[in-house]
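Re: the request from the purification team.
They wanted to know what the chain is likely to look like in 3D before they choose a buffer screen. I agreed to run a prediction and write the result into the notebook, where they can find it.
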Amino acid sequence: MSPRLPLKDLIAEDLATARRRDPAARTAVEVALTYPGVHALWLYRVAHHMWHLPLLRLPARVLSQLARAVTGVEIHPGAVLGRRFFVDHGMGVVIGETAEVGDDVLMFHGSTLGGRSMSRGKRHPTVGDRVVIGAGAKVLGPITIGSDVQIGANAVVVKDVPDGAVVVGVPGRPRHVPAREKGDLEDPALYI
């Protein structure tokens, strides 16, 4: 995880990340006013700070549920998110309490970092840096997703994924992608 930034710099970084990741984003003002994924991230950051103060855990959960109602994105305040995280479109994204997400991660609408167990303890995924999680993808359980992984739309991932893999299908399985095409990969589902 990258070092913490002052709030002003963090907000500027979030706006720049959205503009870089979404070709439809025209201005920072447009992103700040109309992007629910960015709004959810900002509210998560406040709730996450509150979560670490024992007397504020209930208000943190209330704030996270308010954020969910307003944005359609549910991020538990106990989750740990890295820098330059971006949720595109947002609606239906769920990130569970014990999820850990690296830097430069992109999640699309309807994707989930969820659990498979009702037991206490680590029950949500750990996601590396520079990961793309496609629309509708479900990453479930206390598994590890390596860095530079791309998870295709609607994949259901329940096992660890090594660095650099492209994962598609139900259940999600790594697919071979010719080395010359990896840098240009836009949609992992094209390589089924």
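For the purification team: Residues 44 and 77 are 6 Å apart (CA to CA).
Please add any questions underneath this entry.
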